[in-house]
Amino acid sequence: MKILVCISQVPDTTTKIAFSDDKKQLKTDGVTYIINPYDEWYALVRALELKETGTATTVNLVTVGTATVEPVIRKALALGGDEAIRINTDSTDPYVVAAQIAEYAKSEGYDLVLCGKESIDYNNGVMGAMLAELLDMNYIGFATKLDVANGTATVNREIEGGQETDEVALPLVVSCQKGMAEARIPNMRGIMAARTKPLKVVEPAAVTALTNVAAYEMPPAKSGVKMIAPENMDELVNLLHTEAKVI
């Protein structure tokens, strides 16, 4: 069984966000980038577990980005991927990302494609479904558990008020979330091996974006907290009626 894991580069959660003067781009100076946690901790690690148990034979990684993403994809290789593919373009449009990966993957014979449920920068959560449609594969989103046997995947996912278990024939696209696997840290052997593992660069297909960034803006600053004396319940009730907001 061949597995393809989608890897995206995102700013570290401690990054101080700033935008360009026209508010259409994130300023990248001094920004530290990491593997999207949902891709790394859940999709990639579960793929590696399936290989370690003999269920999968190959775990390849794919990312869409310029040469600046190569340190991140090398880290993913250090965790245990066999080969990385970088599609040489950059876009914030999830359809473009999905279409580029689909264009590469459709002729490679992958049985299972795994991705994180969303990236932590844009939080769109739509790329996996788009990819499944473009590849004409079954899709299950927001999965918390995945097992594969005899060409059939058994997948658990959260639904409102409980859990759902699905049995789905391969090939299959699954977006993964917390519960799928336990995070790993690359060891020195893996880091050294990643330096020589193949990283193939593929030129992008001609794809028209469906969205564009009109502008970025920071959320409004948080207002101060009003402290009410315990004996002044009348004022508290008045403020709850006149100033409190339901979020």
The CATH level-2 architecture is identified as 3-Layer(aba) Sandwich
Low-confidence stretches: none
The number of distinct β-strands equals 11
**Residues in helix, %:** 25-40%
Biggest sheet strand order reads 9-8-7-10-6-1-4-5-11
What fraction of the residues are assigned to beta strands by DSSP?
25-35%
Q: CATH homologous superfamily, by name?
A: HUPs
CATH topology: Rossmann fold
In total, the number of domains comes to 1
- Please trace the helix and strand order, writing H or E for each element: EEEHEHEHEHEEEEHEH
Mean pLDDT: 93
Described by the principal axes of the CA atoms, the overall outline is globular
Main sheet attributes: strand count, strand direction, barrel closure: 9 strands, mixed
**Structural class estimated from helices and strands:** alpha/beta
Secondary structure tally, helices:
6
Explained architecture:
The structure is a single chain. The protein contains 6 helices and 11 strands. Helix content is about 25%, strand content about 25%. It is α/β, with parallel strands linked by helices and about 250 residues long. The protein is globular. Strand 8 and strand 9 form a beta hairpin. It has a 9-stranded mixed sheet. A two-stranded antiparallel sheet has the order 2-3. It has one domain: Rossmann fold (3-Layer(aba) Sandwich), CATH 3.40.50.
